[in-house]
Design goal:
The structure holds 2 protein chains of 2 kinds. By secondary structure, chain A is an alpha/beta fold. Chain A contains 7 helices and 11 strands. Helices cover 33% and strands 27% of the residues of chain A. Chain A has a 6-stranded mixed sheet, with helices on both faces. In chain A, strands 1, 2, 3, 5 and 6 form a 5-stranded antiparallel sheet that branches. Chain B is an alpha+beta fold. Chain B is elongated.
Chain lengths: 229, 805
């Protein structure tokens, strides 16, 4: 599903040049669950951003579903992203002014869908994430665990093929963290490809394999579980 | 999608109460100013709209080019010209003469005398000419016969009450009767015409014939080609324009032996209200407007709106960090930039809509005050007034977009990669722009304060300037009709009896009112050098009573005889004539005059016309015994109450039939500058609003900037900075921009106000104090605005700030 060749990302300011990714070659198969680990500043999030089409690489090739997308314009990336990729962030990134229901509904507003269909889809997902009773609440009225469940609901609402999670449990206590990991595992079992950045070795255990990054390089790849197509 | 945007906009407005308040209130005030000014402009341009043939009607003006004048446009013309025009000019359909005669005392049967407020005499075609309808009577014939009158509805009610008035006769104080032949609607406020009753023009012709000496071989004044006296209008046939008519009318006058000193010019009827401020001998026209004031008000209203829009731009970009996460997230889930731009424009439009909804009641509250101040009849009626409805929609869209476009572009440009990580800080570029905008706002506000100060200074200058006469404590009694004139000396004598009166004298006219003009041949001038000079008749007592000063020669003698019938002229006349020994010179009146009159004295220049214009040469004739026009009475200091008591007593005895009528000279003086007073008040209000809105913006920005510097303040305090030191740092960081704004404001004040002052021939100086004081006021207001925020920040516990970070 994902294949990169010599992916490089360099950040430049007036005086400093930072190499965030240096000739990274990654391959992720459809239905796989991959964890990305490494110390702070090693390029984990940058990799996720490039894979998630939020950012273009400086050089190298990136194949998404066999399509070379590394030179895509912002508009092309947005179009590709909105029906194919879901995101979960450490800090949830829910919009404070919108209710739980509206936050989850948001991605559907940017794809053509009737309001009846939207309503049905949102209610289903809220039920599944066990937060339907909180639909009319605002994010600040929820616990951290509940907020991340809303974020997961928002990420899955468009039924994306790829789910990118950037430290999804980083802001949660262990119980809520486990809960989110169970949700991700469940999604993966239903066929969603997942790439997750994490600092937690125990949460990385949930993945089929772990990629270790250091200073923009892949240093090791550990296969934890057998994965069959 | 739009529902989502709208909902979000409203929630943001509710959540960010402080920012929303500043934006909505600021914009509402700005919008209200614009609406009011539009209503005012609309009203000013609505003058004469009621006349059905507006585009074809012109006023016939004269240009007076004679020596001694400033080559001015004159509101009246040659009396014989009007009636001759339709015959000589095939494109002219009709002419009309309307002369204003002011108040007239009348009575019906045994009822007490009342004044007709404003009588005019007009040709019988006035109703057809201007398209006025009669409620009663036949418009074709109502004003055909001499001694007929048409009353307005309210004038009829004052004289007759409920009774039928048609064909009834009213007695006038001038000893003749008038028959009521028609009733018309009251004139609307938005016309330059201002009569409450129209007497047939044939009445004036009959009176002029009566007053003509039996042996005279001259035409009556109404038919004369040799004077400038008649307000005249013409109406062109459909399809013709006035192009080239000025020259042809002037040539036509030359054919009729009108001197080279007078040219004719036409003024379109719809220019009369707004483009007549330079025209003299125009006293029949009440409430003249001024196109320049319209420009000034419109400019100021736009400035106020701009300052309010800048607040929106500033505060929206300042708080952009709070929206960054939303923008990032929307982009992540599939929004493209144009959708976000639309969303943010939608928000500014929503906010502008709320401001507009608040502006409407504001306008309703302010309008009565404004109408009262300006004597206007402005109303806001959306159903009838489509222009204002359309303007509001346009204003909503334009202001919404202008305010929202910059924030929309800034906010929609955020990169999700940056903002979602939480490492995002608003860029330096945004800060620079906000600084520039704050400087701009304050520069405009300070410029408005400075302008207000200059306007005030000029008005004060006018009020305190030595006028060359003393207008304080002077009462004027106008002899309205023959009955009053007969007893003028009795009134004078009776008033003199009380010690509360220092001087009681008779005058033909007084400074501040329009003086007549006369042509003279000064001694030593070439034959055809006719000088046109303003003229007034005063008694020796009147010169004293008005506090005028003879600087050379002497005042008139108390008894005027043929031998001592000399004149007094002013210093300007002496200067312009270039005479070294004026007392040895004479004036001649026409080629037949061989003796002329001697010059008895030179009077110190006095302002008999408004200060917008230079003092002109004036010739003072002695007021001879007999019916005069005005009794001038000077009250002794502190005696006003006794004097007025005495006036009431005397009046009853001298004029039992006449309602008490008098005026104070200083009131008349003030009314000349009423328009300037009104302008000054309006500019005051506008400046106040502008600075208020700018302060709201500064308040919002200060609270934002301080919130951003919480950590810095915390660290500084931890390192030992005192609260005072923090206050100093914060204050300076804002005040330096206000100081820069001053530097921009000063030239703005200087150039705009120099231009305004040029309207006045006599004007105040723009000294350094004007600039210093306006700057000081601007700085003080800005300091007060930010002081609460800075003190709060400086006294906060640093631990909170650092923990928070």
């Amino acid at each position: 599903m994902i294949k990169t060749n010599n992916l490089t990302k360099i950040y430049r300011t007036d005086e400093v040049e930072t190499v965030a990714l240096n000739n990274v070659n990654v391959e992720v198969a459809k239905g796989e669950f991959v964890a990305v680990m490494g110390p702070s500043g090693c390029g984990k999030s940058t990799l996720l951003n490039v894979i998630g089409l939020l950012d273009n690489p400086t050089s190298g090739e990136y194949y998404f579903n066999t399509q070379e997308v590394s030179k895509y314009t912002e508009r092309m990336r947005t179009n590709m992203r909105k029906s194919n990729i879901g995101f979960i962030f450490q800090s949830f990134n829910l919009i404070d002014e919108l209710t739980v229901y509206e936050n989850v509904e948001l991605p559907l507003l940017y794809i053509k869908m009737s309001s009846a269909e939207r309503k049905k889809r949102v209610n289903e997902v809220l039920d599944r994430m066990k937060i339907a009773h909180r639909a009319k609440h605002f994010p600040q009225q929820l616990s951290g665990g509940q907020q991340q469940r809303v974020a997961v609901a928002r990420a899955v609402i468009t039924k994306p093929k790829l789910m990118l999670a950037d430290e999804p449990t980083g802001n949660l206590d262990s119980a809520n963290g486990e809960e989110v990991m169970d949700l991700l595992t469940q999604l993966n079992e239903e066929g969603t490809t997942i790439i997750m950045v994490t600092h937690s070795p125990s949460h990385a255990e949930y993945a089929h394999r772990t990629i270790q990054l250091f200073d923009g390089h892949i240093v090791t790849e550990n296969i934890k579980k057998e994965f069959h197509l | 999608m739009f529902k989502n945007y709208f909902k979000l906009a409203l929630r943001n407005i509710v959540r960010q109460k402080g920012f929303s308040f500043i934006n909505i209130v600021g914009l509402a005030i700005g919008l209200a100013c614009c609406l009011i000014i539009l209503l005012f402009i609309q009203y000013e341009f609505s003058y004469e709209e009621m006349h059905h043939d507006l585009d074809n009607i012109y006023r016939v003006l004269t240009i007076d080019k004679a020596m001694g004048t400033n080559s001015q446009r004159v509101g009246i013309t040659i009396p014989a010209l009007g009636p001759s025009i339709p015959e000589a000019f095939s494109e002219v359909e009709d002419f009309l003469r309307v002369t204003n005669q002011g108040q007239l005392l009348v009575s019906f049967e045994e009822n007490p005398f009342v004044y007709i407020q404003n009588l005019c005499s007009a040709d019988e075609n006035i109703f057809d000419f201007f398209g006025f309808k009669l409620l009663e009577g036949d418009p074709e014939s109502a004003l055909r016969e001499p001694y007929t009158v048409v009353l307005t509805k309210s004038e009829k009610a004052r004289i007759f009450g409920e009774e039928n008035s048609m064909n009834k006769t009213i007695r006038t104080g001038n000893g003749y009767d008038l028959t009521v032949t028609g009733i018309m609607e009251d004139l609307p406020a938005n016309t330059h015409l201002s009569f409450t009753a129209i007497q047939s023009f044939t009445t004036r012709i009959a009176q002029a014939r009566q007053n003509q000496p039996p042996d005279s071989n001259q035409p009556i004044w109404i038919e004369s080609w040799q004077m400038i006296a008649m307000p005249t209008y013409i109406r062109l046939k459909e399809g013709f324009t006035s192009e080239g008519m000025d020259e042809r009318l002037t040539a036509f006058c030359r054919e009729n032996e009108v001197g080279e000193n007078f040219d004719i010019t036409l003024q379109a009827l719809d220019d009369v209200h707004l483009r007549s401020t330079d025209i003299i001998f125009d006293s029949g026209i009440s409430n003249k407007g001024d196109i320049n004031y319209i420009y000034i008000f419109a400019a100021i209203a736009l400035l106020v709106l701009l300052i309010a829009s800048v607040n929106y731009m500033n505060l929206s970009t300042a708080k952009s960090m709070q929206r960054a996460k939303e923008v990032g997230m929307r982009k992540v889930v599939g929004s493209v930039r144009s959708q976000l731009i639309n969303q943010f424009l939608g928000e500014s439009l929503t906010l502008t809509l709320l401001a507009l909804l608040l502006a409407i009641p504001l306008v309703e509250i302010v309008l009565p005050w404004l109408n009262d101040l300006g004597g206007t009849g402005i109303r806001m009626n959306f159903l009838e007034n489509h222009v204002i409805s359309l303007f509001m929609v346009a204003l909503l869209i334009v202001v919404g977009i202008i305010s929202g476009i910059y924030p929309a572009f800034v906010l929609s440009g955020f990169k999700p990669v940056t903002v979602l990580k939480g490492s995002f800080k608003s860029g330096k570029k945004g800060t620079t722009l906000r600084t520039v905008l704050v400087i701009f706002q304050f520069a405009l506000s300070i410029a408005l304060i400075g302008s207000t100060a200059v306007v005030q200074k000029q008005l004060k200058y006018i009020k305190n300037k030595d006028l060359g006469y003393n207008r304080e404590q002077v009462i004027l009694f106008d002899m309205q009709d023959n009955l009053m004139s007969e007893n003028i000396e009795l009134l004078q004598e009776e008033l003199k009896k009380h010690s509360a009166f220092e001087k009681v004298a008779i005058a033909g006219n007084v400074p501040g009112r329009t003086f007549g003009r006369t042509g003279v041949n000064p001694e030593g001038a070439v034959d055809d050098d006719i000088w046109i000079m303003s003229r007034v008749s005063l008694s020796a007592d009147a010169i004293d009573a008005l506090g005028m000063e003879i600087v050379l020669g002497e005042n008139f003698l108390p008894e005027i005889t043929r031998e001592n019938f000399d004149v007094i002229i002013n210093e300007t006349a002496v200067r312009q004539l270039g005479w070294d020994n004026p007392l040895e010179k004479r004036f001649f009146f026409g080629p037949q005059d061989s003796t002329g009159v001697a010059i008895r004295g030179i009077i110190k220049d006095f302002h008999f016309i408004e200060m917008q214009q230079n003092i002109e040469p004036v010739i003072i004739f002695p007021q001879t015994r007999g019916p005069g026009n005005i009794v001038v009475a000077r009250i002794a200091p502190g005696q006003t109450e006794f004097a007025m008591e005495h006036v009431r007593q005397v009046w009853k005895d001298v004029y039992p039939d006449h309602p008490l009528s008098f005026s104070f000279m200083d009131d008349e003086f003030n009314s000349i500058y009423h328009r300037d007073e009104v302008t000054s008040k309006i500019v005051n209000v506008f400046s106040g609003l502008a600075i208020f809105i700018a302060c709201l913006g500064l308040l919002g920005l200060a609270s934002f900037a301080i919130a951003q510097r919480r950590k810095e303040i915390g660290i500084r305090k931890t390192m030992g900075a005192s609260s005072l030191a923090i206050v100093k740092i914060l204050t300076f960081s804002f005040m330096k921009w206000v100081l820069v704004a001053n530097l921009i404001a000063w030239p703005l004040i200087y150039f705009s106000m120099s231009k305004w002052l040029q309207n006045f021939a006599y004007r105040t100086e723009m000294d350094i104090w004007v600039f210093l004081i306006s700057s000081l006021i601007g700085i003080m207001i800005a300091l007060i605005t930010i002081s609460l925020q800075t003190f709060k920040a400086a006294n906060a516990n640093p631990v909170d700030a650092l923990k928070y970070e």
